[in-house]
Amino acid sequence: MKTKLIFATNNQHKVDEIRPVIGEAFEIITLQEAGIDIDIPEPHETLDANATEKSRTIHALTRQNCFSEDTGLEVVALNGEPGVKSARYAGGEVRDFQENINKLLQNLKGKTSRQARFRTVISLILDEKEYFFEGICDGQISEVQMGTGGFGYDPVFRPTGASGSFAEMSIEEKNRYSHRQKAVTQLIQFLAAYKI
Ligand code: IMP
Questions:
Q1: Mean per-residue pLDDT for 89-109?
Q2: Is the CB of 82 under 6 A from ligand 1?
Q3: Is 141 exposed, middle or buried (0-12, 13-18, 19+ CB in 10 A)?
């Protein structure tokens, strides 16, 4: 029998990226499938603390095994911004991907370095214990947007070694480079060893 893991996110893109790679022994349950309709808070100053907040919130509600992830885009020339504030970089309560990209490109005008990285932290609560996993994808912020796929900052992020942006890739291609995929790989390896 598969072990069920609730994925504490309302972002369907993230579910679509992780579901195909989670492996045979585990089944991912979305918040919607678990009958949970809440906007999980992300009030903290670090990715770890936000990831913990999300998984603990869902665990408190369900008492079930679950995991969450929090991701930030860290730009060297902006001293690591937008970082933990990536979702609401442009300000306001609404998460507007295009507004966030506009602000990022504006803030990078005239900067010589466009070096950046995505960093994902996963918090897993399994059998009442919490475990963390991290994944990093280095790359560059492009001058203009490229592609229409993906979400968030995908149209302006070109991972190191790739010829195009995340938004120009299929999910399979993105998963070859992506921060989230790297963190998920750690999660999967941990889960595979845990089941033995
Ligand atoms: P979250 O708080 O983990 O949902 O992520 C914060 C923000 O980072 C999102 O709203 C997106 O703008 C951005 N983000 C997270 N992951 C990705 C990604 O894989 N590609 C592009 N942007 C992302």
A1: 90
A2: no
A3: buried
